[in-house]
C-alpha cells in the first residue's frame, strides 16, 4: 500500500491510479467562485485573476531544504516560546528540529498506541494550549492501535483526542500524562481529518473530522448533525462541564444536534488554519472525483454547511441530478482534477521576512505538487495565483502539511521525509 502512495488521498470509485499523476503532467484548471465558477470546459489551463501585488510577490519564492530523514511527516508546528520546530511522524513520534538539526530523541513518542498501517491513519494533529508556557498543556489527535479487540471502548483505527503535559523548558514530554478528552468511532480507515488548532479569537480548540471514509459518504455523515464525522468541532478544554471538556456558547444547537459541532458538510478537511491576525478560518477540504476546495469562514461565523455530500465544491455531487444549494457555503476557490487530486490546506503568511507576502494564503496538492496562493479582501476572494512553476520547478510532490515557526515563517513537508522553508528568491 505504501508503494502505491495512498496516504491522504481520498477513496474514489473511478479514478486514474494516483501513482500516474506527476507535477509535470498535471494541467491547471483553477476556478474562481464569485457567484459563478470560471472554468474551461476544454481542459485548457486557466487561472484566477491576481492582483498586481499578489503576482509580484508570489512569483519570486523558493523552497529551501531544512531537514530530511523524517518518517512520513504529517504536521509541522512551533514549540511555543522557542526557535524549535516540531514535526509529527505518522507512526507516532513528535520530532524536534532546532538550528536546522533533527534531534535523535523525540519530543513525544506515542508509537506504542498509534495505528499507522492504513493510508490515512496515524499521528494526525497537535495543538499547544494558548497558555502552554505557563501550564504545559498540549493536545494530540491520533488513530488508536487497539489491535487485540476493543480496548477502553476503542476499536483499532478509532480517533483519540487527548491532553498531555510537559514541564516548562523540557525537551521532551511524558506520554504517561495522557488524559483522553474524546474518541471518535471511525467506520473506515480513510477520511479521518485530524487537524487540531486553537482559535486566536476565542481561545477554544477546533477539531476537523472527515466523513468517516469509504467513498461518496455512504452513511450520509456530512449532513447528519447527530454525528461528529464530517464536522468541525469546537470545545472548551478549560472547562469540565461536559465531563472532560465544556461546550462554548455559539455552537450549533437544536433537537438531535451534537453540542460540539461548530460547522458541517466536510468530506475530509486535510488541514485547516486560523489567520493569526484576525481569526479567519481557512479549510482545505479534499474532494471526491472532481473538485478540491478551499473554504473560508470569517472569524466567529460558525454554523456553516460546506455542502458535502450534496455538493462537491460548487457542483452537485451527483451529476445532472440537480441539488438544493440553499444554505450551503460555497468554497472561495476550487480546482479540478486536471490539476491534482488531494488538497493540503495551508496558512496565511504573517511572518517578518517577506512583509509584502503578509495576508497571502498558501495551499498545495498532495498528488501533483501544485502550490497555490490566494488573498481574501473584505470577505471575498481578492486574487489568486498558481505558483507551482516558479516555486517548485523540481516537481516535488506528496505535500502532507504546511506549518509555521515562532516568527510566522512558513514551512512545508513532503511525505518522503523532507521539510522545506518558503523564502524569497
Describe the SSE topology.
Elements: E1 30-32, H1 52-58, E2 61-67, E3 73-78, E4 85-89, E5 93-98, E6 101-102, E7 108-109, E8 123-128, H2 132-135, E9 137-143, E10 159-165, E11 179-184, E12 196-198, E13 205-208, E14 231-235, E15 261-264, E16 269-274, E17 281-285, E18 291-297, E19 311-312, E20 315-316, E21 333-336, E22 343-348, E23 360-365, E24 371-377, E25 380-386, H3 388-391, E26 399-404, E27 410-414, E28 418-424
Antiparallel strand pairs: 1-21, 2-28, 3-4, 4-5, 5-6, 5-7, 8-9, 9-10, 10-11, 12-13, 13-14, 14-15, 16-17, 17-18, 18-21, 19-20, 22-23, 23-24, 24-25, 26-27, 27-28
Give the proportion of residues in helices: under 10%
- Cα distance spanning the termini: 37 Å
Helical stretch count?
A: 3
Q: What's the β-strand tally? A: 28
Strand order of the largest sheet: 1-21-18-17-16
Mean pLDDT value:
87
| Apparent shape | globular
Task: Provide the structure class.
Answer: mainly beta
Q: What is the CA-atom radius of gyration, in angstroms?
A: 20 Å
What's the story with the biggest beta sheet?
5 strands, antiparallel
Low-confidence stretches: 1-49
The oligomeric state of the chains shown is: single chain
Strand residue percentage: 25-35%
Summarize this entry quickly:
The protein is mainly beta. It contains 3 helices and 28 strands.
Detailed description of the structure:
- The structure is a single chain.
- The chain is mainly β and 425 residues long.
- It is built from three helices and 28 strands.
- Strands 1-21-18-17-16 form a five-stranded antiparallel β-sheet, with no helix packed on it. Strands 3, 4, 5, 6 and 7 form a five-stranded antiparallel β-sheet that branches.
- The longest helix has 7 residues, at 52-58.
- The chain is globular and about 55 Å long.
Amino acid at each position: 500500500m505504501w508503494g502505491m502512495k495512498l496516504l491522504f488521498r481520498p477513496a474514489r470509485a473511478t479514478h486514474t491510479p494516483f501513482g500516474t499523476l506527476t507535477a509535470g503532467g498535471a494541467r491547471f484548471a483553477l476556478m474562481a467562485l464569485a457567484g459563478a465558477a470560471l472554468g474551461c470546459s476544454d481542459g485548457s489551463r486557466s487561472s484566477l485573476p491576481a492582483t498586481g501585488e499578489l503576482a509580484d510577490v508570489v512569483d519570486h519564492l523558493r523552497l529551501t531544504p531544512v531537514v530530511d530523514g523524517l518518517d512520513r511527516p504529517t504536521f509541522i508546528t512551533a514549540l511555543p516560546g522557542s526557535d524549535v520546530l516540531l514535526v509529527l511522524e505518522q507512526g507516532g513520534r513528535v520530532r524536534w528540529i532546532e538550528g536546522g538539526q533533527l534531534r535523535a530523541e523525540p519530543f513525544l513518542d506515542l508509537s506504542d498506541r498509534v495505528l499507522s498501517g492504513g493510508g490515512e491513519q496515524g499521528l494526525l494533529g497537535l495543538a499547544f494550549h494558548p497558555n502552554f508556557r505557563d501550564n504545559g498543556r498540549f493536545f494530540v489527535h491520533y488513530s488508536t492501535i487497539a489491535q487485540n479487540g476493543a480496548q477502553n471502548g476503542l476499536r483499532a483505527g478509532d480517533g483519540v483526542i487527548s491532553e498531555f503535559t510537559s514541564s516548562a523548558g523540557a525537551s521532551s514530554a511524558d506520554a504517561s500524562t495522557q488524559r483522553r478528552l474524546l474518541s471518535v468511532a471511525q467506520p473506515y480507515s480513510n477520511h479521518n481529518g485530524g487537524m487540531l488548532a486553537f482559535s486566536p479569537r476565542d481561545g477554544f480548540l477546533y477539531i476537523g473530522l472527515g466523513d468517516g471514509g469509504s467513498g461518496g459518504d455512504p452513511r450520509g455523515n456530512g449532513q447528519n448533525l447527530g454525528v461528529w464525522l464530517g464536522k468541525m468541532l469546537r470545545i472548551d478544554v478549560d472547562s469540565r462541564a461536559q465531563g472532560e471538556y465544556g461546550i462554548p456558547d455559539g455552537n450549533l444547537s437544536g433537537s438531535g444536534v451534537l453540542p460540539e459541532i461548530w460547522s458541517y458538510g466536510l468530506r475530509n478537511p486535510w488541514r485547516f488554519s486560523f489567520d493569526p491576525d484576525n481569526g479567519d478560518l481557512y479549510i482545505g477540504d479534499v474532494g471526491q472525483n472532481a473538485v478540491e476546495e478551499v473554504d473560508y469562514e470569517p472569524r466567529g461565523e460558525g454554523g456553516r454547511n460546506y455542502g458535502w455530500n450534496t455538493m462537491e465544491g460548487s457542483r452537485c455531487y451527483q451529476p445532472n441530478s440537480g441539488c438544493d444549494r440553499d444554505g450551503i457555503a460555497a468554497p472561495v476557490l476550487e480546482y479540478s482534477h486536471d490539476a491534482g487530486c488531494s488538497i493540503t490546506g495551508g496558512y496565511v503568511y504573517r511572518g517578518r521576512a517577506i512583509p509584502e507576502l503578509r495576508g497571502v494564503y498558501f495551499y498545495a496538492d498532495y498528488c501533483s505538487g501544485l502550490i497555490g496562493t490566494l488573498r481574501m479582501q473584505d470577505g471575498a476572494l481578492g486574487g489568486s495565483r498558481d505558483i507551482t512553476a516558479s516555486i517548485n520547478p523540481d516537481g516535488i510532490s506528496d505535500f502532507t502539511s504546511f506549518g509555521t515557526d515562532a516568527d510566522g515563517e512558513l514551512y512545508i513537508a513532503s511525505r518522503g521525509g523532507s521539510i522545506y522553508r518558503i523564502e524569497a528568491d
